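Hey,

Quick one before I head out. I ran the complex with manganese (II) ion overnight. Inputs first:
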Amino acid sequence: MKGKILVIEDNEQNLYLVRFILEQNGYEVFAALDGQSGIEMAASLKPDLILLDIQLPLMDGYAVARNLRQDPALADTPIVAVTSYAMTGDREKTIEAGCDGYIEKPIDPDTFMAQVEQHFIIRDQRSGGQ
Ligand code: MN
């Protein structure tokens, strides 16, 4: 197992595809369908990376990211926004909320894994690892 990835995503079809790609690549996948359960799962799981949909019911992804960043145990956990908001300014908004990066929907199955793993590389460089 390469690591634990928490996917916070309310759309079952998106979740299915993301889970399929991640599991095919050797990751253990945990899913939350809304922000509040995602925050609770992140606290108990301590995942290696979090994929965060921005358009979520009740609590949007920006609020979820801000909340996750208040947990010191998750300070180094990459949070990657996955969202169809492709307009200028939205990328900045995700970064301001505490996300490390941004993957656009619809995801491209051919490049998705590399986009995700790039954040492991950045995290490892930041912590002085290889
Ligand atoms: Mn959504």
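The chain has a mean pLDDT of 93.

Talk tomorrow,
K.
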